[in-house]
Amino acid sequence: MKTIVFIGCYKFGTSKEALTTAKEMGYHVVLFTDIPKYMTSNVEFPDVDQFIFVKNMLDEQQMLDGIIKLKENGKQICACVSMIDPYVSFAAQLCKHLELAEISVDSLRIMENKIKVREKLNNLPMTPYYSIFHPSDSYKELEEEFQSLFPIIIKPPISNGSKDVLFVETTKKLANALNFVQKNHPDSQLLIEEFLRGQQYLIETLVYNNEIRYLGVVEQEVIYNGRFVVNGYKFPAILGQKESDSLYSTIVNIVETLGLSNGSCHFEMKLVQGEWKLIEINPRMSGGVMNRIIEEGTGINLIKEILKLYLREEPAFVETKKQHVYAKYLTVRSRGKLLKVTGEELAIKHKGVKYVHVKALEGKILTNPYSMGDRYACVIAVSESAEQAEAIALGASREIKFYLEPL
């Protein structure tokens, strides 16, 4: 039985969609998980044929033992895939060990560490000014180094999302910010970099046999509430020819320098005074509703093409439609216990709305947006113009209301 092994999964978003896509492609779906309650989650994971619990999913021998048992039970392992941190390069390593697809393991491993990325791209023009802060370093020396560059950004080398990224406006706040991050990441080096002002974009990329086969550019709308949280996505991003050409050249430069010959990743870039600057790279497709955004705009199922890459098949990117897409994420303004949510049925009835999802569950505690996890609903709309798609999504999102009991 042809089988795809997945390592880790969330209850929502890209990693879960990958399970569904694999099932639709006709594969037996096996999910390795370190979350015991997933083992009985047939309702939440209807596309999983078999769950395998592994306490430490980065233990290569444990994982290989599980895969060997699958083989002994008649499963033909066709691919090992992970769409979540920190298992992406590990899954690629298992592919190599099992003589499956040749995914660029070393390149993906570098991408999993923000400091290693900066060091590898150190001399390239898209790299902002940065410094590495060691646990034994002096606050004063760091303060002097960045004196003229405030505000700055502090982030640990291994993290995802925005919850660990601190924006430090003045020298007076530096010591407290460093202490805060170090509490969550003791004994870890920290990445300190200049804060870049400019429009932010997300770029989905797939590389096959040293050639960029897909490059999708999404404009991001970012809010700041003590943390940076993306609450809006416009696809495709509208760029001038000059900006588009220079972006492509920048991505090619990064991909070649990192040695990515086969694999997928996404970049976060800012256009700063006409020059592209790299915010960060992640060695996987972006989470949330990104696949839906791209599919609504182009007809391309990017997850499916990524799986084909891991199955040693050539990805194919044929646009079957061309529409503007706007995805609006909803947040709340105060902390409270969720009593009920209304308006989901009204939102989906708006002309042009293709998708409405409410993640928040009654009885859960909702809070102001301090991380990407604090986005509680999403509305996706399409139209022939970017402005109209945005207007439709915003209008539909106003139908959705969260009723909270203050805490």
UniProtKB/TrEMBL annotation:
Q: Which residues form the ATP-grasp domain?
A: 116-311
Alphabetized Pfam families for the sequence: ATP-grasp_4 (PF13535), ATPgrasp_N (PF18130), LAL_C2 (PF18603)
Record has Ligase as a keyword:
yes
Coiled-coil regions listed: none
Keywords, ordered alphabetically: ATP-binding, Ligase, Nucleotide-binding
Q: Please name the InterPro entries in this protein's record.
A: ATP-dep_AA_Ligase (IPR052032), ATP-grasp (IPR011761), BL00235/CARNS1_N (IPR041472), CPAse_ATP-bd (IPR005479), LAL_C2 (IPR040570)
Among the GO molecular function terms of this UniProt record, one is: ligase activity
Q: Which domain of life is it from?
A: Bacteria
Could you confirm whether the keyword 4Fe-4S appears in this record? Answer: no
- Kindly provide the name given to this protein in its UniProt entry: ATP-grasp domain-containing protein
Organism for this UniProt entry: Psychrobacillus vulpis
Upper lineage ranks?
Bacteria, Bacillati, Bacillota, Bacilli, Bacillales
